[in-house]
Design a protein that fits this description.
2 domains, 5-stranded mixed sheet, 7 helices, single chain, Immunoglobulin-like, alpha+beta, binds copper (II) ion
Protein backbone atom coordinates (compact mmCIF):
# COMPACT_ATOMS: atom_id res chain seq x y z
CA UNK A 1 0.00 0.00 0.00
CA UNK A 2 2.68 2.41 1.06
CA UNK A 3 4.75 1.53 -1.99
CA UNK A 4 1.90 2.07 -4.44
CA UNK A 5 1.03 5.43 -2.90
CA UNK A 6 4.65 6.50 -3.15
CA UNK A 7 4.69 5.37 -6.77
CA UNK A 8 1.56 7.41 -7.58
CA UNK A 9 3.05 10.40 -5.89
CA UNK A 10 6.11 10.11 -8.09
CA UNK A 11 3.84 10.45 -11.09
CA UNK A 12 5.40 7.37 -12.62
CA UNK A 13 2.59 4.94 -11.83
CA UNK A 14 0.43 4.81 -14.94
CA UNK A 15 -1.58 2.11 -13.20
CA UNK A 16 -2.27 4.37 -10.17
CA UNK A 17 -5.46 6.39 -9.67
CA UNK A 18 -5.92 9.63 -11.59
CA UNK A 19 -5.88 12.05 -8.65
CA UNK A 20 -6.65 15.09 -10.79
CA UNK A 21 -9.80 13.47 -12.18
CA UNK A 22 -10.85 12.30 -8.71
CA UNK A 23 -10.43 15.79 -7.22
CA UNK A 24 -12.33 17.25 -10.19
CA UNK A 25 -15.22 14.79 -9.75
CA UNK A 26 -15.52 15.56 -6.03
CA UNK A 27 -15.13 19.31 -6.64
CA UNK A 28 -17.70 19.59 -9.46
CA UNK A 29 -20.88 18.77 -7.46
CA UNK A 30 -19.64 20.79 -4.46
CA UNK A 31 -19.06 23.83 -6.71
CA UNK A 32 -22.40 23.44 -8.51
CA UNK A 33 -24.35 23.13 -5.25
CA UNK A 34 -22.50 26.09 -3.68
CA UNK A 35 -23.22 28.26 -6.74
CA UNK A 36 -26.86 27.18 -6.89
CA UNK A 37 -27.35 28.06 -3.20
CA UNK A 38 -25.57 31.41 -3.60
CA UNK A 39 -27.53 32.47 -6.67
CA UNK A 40 -31.04 31.23 -5.93
CA UNK A 41 -31.29 30.86 -2.14
CA UNK A 42 -29.01 33.51 -0.60
CA UNK A 43 -28.76 35.76 -3.69
CA UNK A 44 -32.10 37.59 -3.39
CA UNK A 45 -31.23 38.47 0.25
CA UNK A 46 -27.74 39.75 -0.42
CA UNK A 47 -26.97 43.34 0.56
CA UNK A 48 -27.83 46.05 -0.23
CA UNK A 49 -31.17 44.69 -1.48
CA UNK A 50 -33.23 45.96 -4.40
CA UNK A 51 -34.70 49.24 -3.21
CA UNK A 52 -33.16 51.21 -6.07
CA UNK A 53 -31.62 50.51 -9.46
CA UNK A 54 -28.13 51.07 -8.05
CA UNK A 55 -28.80 48.75 -5.08
CA UNK A 56 -30.17 46.03 -7.37
CA UNK A 57 -27.16 46.43 -9.65
CA UNK A 58 -24.80 46.04 -6.70
CA UNK A 59 -26.66 42.97 -5.49
CA UNK A 60 -26.32 41.45 -8.95
CA UNK A 61 -22.57 42.22 -8.95
CA UNK A 62 -22.10 40.64 -5.52
CA UNK A 63 -24.00 37.57 -6.73
CA UNK A 64 -21.80 37.25 -9.82
CA UNK A 65 -18.60 37.61 -7.79
CA UNK A 66 -19.81 35.09 -5.19
CA UNK A 67 -20.63 32.59 -7.93
CA UNK A 68 -17.11 33.05 -9.31
CA UNK A 69 -15.43 32.82 -5.91
CA UNK A 70 -17.30 29.80 -4.51
CA UNK A 71 -15.81 27.24 -6.97
CA UNK A 72 -12.30 28.55 -6.19
CA UNK A 73 -12.94 28.19 -2.46
CA UNK A 74 -14.50 24.76 -3.04
CA UNK A 75 -11.40 23.67 -4.96
CA UNK A 76 -9.10 24.80 -2.14
CA UNK A 77 -11.17 22.87 0.43
CA UNK A 78 -11.61 19.73 -1.70
CA UNK A 79 -7.95 19.59 -2.76
CA UNK A 80 -6.88 20.24 0.84
CA UNK A 81 -9.09 17.50 2.26
CA UNK A 82 -8.10 15.08 -0.50
CA UNK A 83 -4.39 15.74 0.18
CA UNK A 84 -4.82 15.26 3.91
CA UNK A 85 -6.51 11.89 3.40
CA UNK A 86 -4.78 10.40 0.35
CA UNK A 87 -1.29 11.88 0.63
CA UNK A 88 -0.88 11.85 4.37
CA UNK A 89 2.39 10.57 5.75
CA UNK A 90 2.44 6.82 6.32
CA UNK A 91 4.72 4.76 8.51
CA UNK A 92 7.85 3.77 6.61
CA UNK A 93 7.15 5.96 3.57
CA UNK A 94 9.63 8.80 3.49
CA UNK A 95 9.62 9.51 -0.24
CA UNK A 96 8.71 12.97 -1.48
CA UNK A 97 6.09 13.66 -4.16
CA UNK A 98 6.72 15.19 -7.59
CA UNK A 99 7.77 18.83 -7.76
CA UNK A 100 5.12 21.42 -8.65
CA UNK A 101 7.88 23.73 -9.88
CA UNK A 102 8.30 23.24 -13.62
CA UNK A 103 5.05 21.29 -13.96
CA UNK A 104 3.82 22.66 -17.30
CA UNK A 105 0.26 21.35 -16.98
CA UNK A 106 -0.34 22.89 -13.55
CA UNK A 107 1.30 26.18 -14.50
CA UNK A 108 -0.69 26.48 -17.74
CA UNK A 109 -3.95 25.69 -15.99
CA UNK A 110 -3.20 28.16 -13.18
CA UNK A 111 -2.26 31.04 -15.49
CA UNK A 112 -5.21 30.42 -17.84
CA UNK A 113 -7.87 30.14 -15.13
CA UNK A 114 -6.69 33.16 -13.10
CA UNK A 115 -6.25 35.28 -16.27
CA UNK A 116 -9.77 34.44 -17.48
CA UNK A 117 -11.31 35.29 -14.09
CA UNK A 118 -9.41 38.59 -13.69
CA UNK A 119 -10.00 39.76 -17.28
CA UNK A 120 -13.69 38.86 -17.07
CA UNK A 121 -14.05 40.83 -13.82
CA UNK A 122 -12.29 43.87 -15.35
CA UNK A 123 -14.67 43.87 -18.34
CA UNK A 124 -17.71 43.08 -16.23
CA UNK A 125 -16.90 45.83 -13.70
CA UNK A 126 -16.43 48.44 -16.42
CA UNK A 127 -19.67 47.45 -18.13
CA UNK A 128 -21.60 47.57 -14.85
CA UNK A 129 -20.27 51.07 -14.10
CA UNK A 130 -21.01 52.44 -17.56
CA UNK A 131 -24.34 50.77 -18.23
CA UNK A 132 -26.69 53.76 -18.75
CA UNK A 133 -29.51 52.11 -16.82
CA UNK A 134 -27.39 52.15 -13.67
CA UNK A 135 -25.63 55.47 -14.24
CA UNK A 136 -22.49 55.27 -12.19
CA UNK A 137 -23.65 52.42 -9.93
CA UNK A 138 -24.41 54.67 -6.95
CA UNK A 139 -20.91 56.01 -6.32
CA UNK A 140 -19.98 59.67 -6.38
CA UNK A 141 -18.75 60.72 -9.81
CA UNK A 142 -17.32 64.10 -8.83
CA UNK A 143 -18.59 67.49 -10.03
CA UNK A 144 -18.81 66.51 -13.74
CA UNK A 145 -20.39 63.05 -13.99
CA UNK A 146 -19.67 60.96 -17.07
CA UNK A 147 -22.67 58.67 -16.68
CA UNK A 148 -26.07 60.31 -16.31
CA UNK A 149 -29.54 58.83 -16.08
CA UNK A 150 -32.20 59.52 -18.73
CA UNK A 151 -34.72 62.20 -17.92
CA UNK A 152 -34.61 65.23 -15.66
CA UNK A 153 -33.50 64.18 -12.19
CA UNK A 154 -34.76 65.49 -8.87
CA UNK A 155 -31.84 67.34 -7.30
CA UNK A 156 -31.16 66.75 -3.63
CA UNK A 157 -28.17 68.38 -2.05
CA UNK A 158 -26.59 66.48 0.82
CA UNK A 159 -24.72 68.74 3.23
CA UNK A 160 -22.54 66.92 5.74
CA UNK A 161 -21.09 68.47 8.85
CA UNK A 162 -19.94 67.32 12.26
CA UNK A 163 -22.12 65.37 12.97
CA UNK A 164 -25.25 65.52 10.92
CA UNK A 165 -26.60 65.44 7.40
CA UNK A 166 -29.01 68.03 6.07
CA UNK A 167 -30.71 68.13 2.68
CA UNK A 168 -31.47 71.03 0.37
CA UNK A 169 -34.02 70.85 -2.43
CA UNK A 170 -33.00 73.50 -5.01
CA UNK A 171 -36.02 72.77 -7.25
CA UNK A 172 -38.30 73.69 -4.33
CA UNK A 173 -36.92 77.09 -3.39
CA UNK A 174 -33.72 75.68 -1.89
CA UNK A 175 -35.12 74.83 1.56
CA UNK A 176 -32.90 72.88 3.94
CA UNK A 177 -34.22 70.11 6.14
CA UNK A 178 -32.92 67.22 8.22
CA UNK A 179 -35.57 64.94 6.62
CA UNK A 180 -34.53 63.00 3.54
CA UNK A 181 -37.69 62.33 1.54
CA UNK A 182 -37.51 60.96 -2.01
CA UNK A 183 -40.07 60.02 -4.65
CA UNK A 184 -40.25 56.55 -6.19
CA UNK A 185 -39.45 56.04 -9.87
CA UNK A 186 -37.78 59.40 -10.58
CA UNK A 187 -34.01 59.65 -11.14
CA UNK A 188 -32.42 61.40 -8.16
CA UNK A 189 -29.28 63.45 -8.38
CA UNK A 190 -27.47 63.77 -5.06
CA UNK A 191 -25.09 66.71 -4.90
CA UNK A 192 -22.93 65.81 -1.93
CA UNK A 193 -20.73 68.29 -0.09
CA UNK A 194 -19.43 69.09 3.40
CA UNK A 195 -19.16 72.19 5.56
CA UNK A 196 -16.17 71.09 7.64
CA UNK A 197 -14.16 67.86 7.46
CA UNK A 198 -14.41 64.82 5.18
CA UNK A 199 -17.57 62.72 5.54
CA UNK A 200 -19.28 60.18 3.31
CA UNK A 201 -22.99 59.99 2.49
CA UNK A 202 -24.00 56.35 2.62
CA UNK A 203 -27.69 55.68 1.92
CA UNK A 204 -27.47 51.94 2.46
CA UNK A 205 -30.73 50.64 0.96
CA UNK A 206 -30.30 52.87 -2.11
CA UNK A 207 -26.82 51.52 -2.81
CA UNK A 208 -25.46 55.07 -2.77
CA UNK A 209 -22.15 55.94 -1.18
CA UNK A 210 -20.50 59.25 -2.06
CA UNK A 211 -17.67 61.16 -0.37
CA UNK A 212 -18.68 64.46 1.21
CA UNK A 213 -15.69 66.79 1.05
CA UNK A 214 -15.59 70.50 1.88
CA UNK A 215 -15.44 72.65 -1.25
CA UNK A 216 -16.34 69.73 -3.53
CA UNK A 217 -19.63 68.91 -5.27
CA UNK A 218 -19.77 65.12 -5.59
CA UNK A 219 -22.66 63.92 -7.79
CA UNK A 220 -24.28 60.48 -7.40
CA UNK A 221 -27.40 59.10 -9.10
CA UNK A 222 -30.02 56.56 -8.18
CA UNK A 223 -33.67 55.75 -8.92
CA UNK A 224 -35.79 54.24 -6.16
CA UNK A 225 -37.86 51.20 -7.10
CA UNK A 226 -39.62 50.57 -3.80
CA UNK A 227 -41.06 52.78 -1.08
CA UNK A 228 -39.79 52.38 2.46
CA UNK A 229 -37.21 53.49 4.98
CA UNK A 230 -33.57 54.32 4.19
CA UNK A 231 -30.70 54.28 6.68
CA UNK A 232 -28.18 57.06 6.14
CA UNK A 233 -24.79 56.76 7.80
CA UNK A 234 -21.57 58.67 7.61
CA UNK A 235 -19.01 56.27 6.11
CA UNK A 236 -15.87 58.29 6.70
CA UNK A 237 -14.24 58.69 10.10
CA UNK A 238 -14.97 62.36 10.80
CA UNK A 239 -14.34 62.99 14.45
CA UNK A 240 -15.61 62.15 17.94
CA UNK A 241 -19.29 61.55 17.11
CA UNK A 242 -18.76 59.92 13.73
CA UNK A 243 -20.51 56.78 14.95
CA UNK A 244 -23.59 58.80 15.89
CA UNK A 245 -23.78 60.52 12.50
CA UNK A 246 -26.80 58.76 11.04
CA UNK A 247 -30.43 59.37 10.25
CA UNK A 248 -33.31 57.78 8.41
CA UNK A 249 -34.87 58.85 5.16
CA UNK A 250 -37.81 57.49 3.23
CA UNK A 251 -38.97 56.78 -0.28
CA UNK A 252 -42.62 57.70 -0.85
CA UNK A 253 -45.06 57.92 -3.74
CA UNK A 254 -44.69 60.83 -6.18
CA UNK A 255 -47.89 62.47 -4.88
CA UNK A 256 -46.82 62.22 -1.23
CA UNK A 257 -43.40 63.61 -2.12
CA UNK A 258 -44.84 66.55 -4.06
CA UNK A 259 -47.16 67.58 -1.26
CA UNK A 260 -44.40 67.14 1.37
CA UNK A 261 -41.96 69.25 -0.68
CA UNK A 262 -44.44 72.07 -1.33
CA UNK A 263 -45.59 72.08 2.29
CA UNK A 264 -42.01 72.12 3.63
CA UNK A 265 -41.04 74.86 1.19
CA UNK A 266 -43.82 77.05 2.59
CA UNK A 267 -43.17 76.09 6.21
CA UNK A 268 -39.45 76.85 6.04
CA UNK A 269 -39.69 79.96 3.85
CA UNK A 270 -38.56 82.27 6.69
CA UNK A 271 -35.54 80.06 7.45
CA UNK A 272 -34.63 79.63 3.78
CA UNK A 273 -34.37 83.40 3.43
CA UNK A 274 -31.56 83.51 6.03
CA UNK A 275 -29.65 80.58 4.48
CA UNK A 276 -26.88 81.31 2.02
CA UNK A 277 -28.26 81.07 -1.53
CA UNK A 278 -28.21 77.59 -2.98
CA UNK A 279 -24.74 76.71 -4.30
CA UNK A 280 -22.90 73.48 -5.06
CA UNK A 281 -20.42 74.16 -2.22
CA UNK A 282 -20.46 76.47 0.79
CA UNK A 283 -17.97 78.46 2.77
CA UNK A 284 -18.06 76.88 6.25
CA UNK A 285 -17.17 80.20 7.92
CA UNK A 286 -20.67 81.50 7.21
CA UNK A 287 -22.29 78.75 9.29
CA UNK A 288 -21.68 80.34 12.72
CA UNK A 289 -22.97 83.64 11.33
CA UNK A 290 -26.14 81.92 10.13
CA UNK A 291 -26.55 80.29 13.54
CA UNK A 292 -26.28 83.68 15.19
CA UNK A 293 -28.76 85.24 12.77
CA UNK A 294 -31.20 82.38 13.37
CA UNK A 295 -30.86 82.61 17.15
CA UNK A 296 -31.46 86.35 16.90
CA UNK A 297 -34.54 85.81 14.76
CA UNK A 298 -35.73 83.12 17.17
CA UNK A 299 -35.68 80.41 14.52
CA UNK A 300 -34.36 76.91 15.10
CA UNK A 301 -33.71 74.61 12.22
CA UNK A 302 -31.41 72.26 10.45
CA UNK A 303 -28.42 74.52 10.70
CA UNK A 304 -24.82 73.95 11.68
CA UNK A 305 -23.90 72.45 15.07
CA UNK A 306 -27.55 71.99 15.91
CA UNK A 307 -28.83 69.12 18.05
CA UNK A 308 -32.41 68.51 19.02
CA UNK A 309 -32.99 68.64 22.82
CA UNK A 310 -33.33 64.88 23.32
CA UNK A 311 -30.60 63.82 20.95
CA UNK A 312 -28.94 60.71 22.43
CA UNK A 313 -25.50 61.88 21.28
CA UNK A 314 -25.66 65.01 23.44
CA UNK A 315 -22.80 64.64 25.96
CU1 LIG B 1 -19.16 62.21 9.15
Amino acid sequence: MAASVAEDAQGSGQAGPNHGLRIFLIWLPVAVIADWLLWFVYGPHMPPGQMSNSAASQQFDVKVMSVLAAPVMAFVLVAGAYSLIVWRHREGDDEDGPAIFGNVRIQTTWITVTAVIVLFLAGFGTYELAWPGFAGAGGGEGPAPIWKPDGKPLEVQVIAQQWRFTYRYPQFGGFETSDLVLPIGQPIQFNVTSLDVIHSFWAYQLGVKADANPGVNNVAYTTARQTGSITVRCAELCGLWHGAMFDYGKVVSVGTFQSWAHQTETQLAAVTKILPPYATTYDPTVVPQINKAMAKAGIGGANGYYYPPNDPVQP
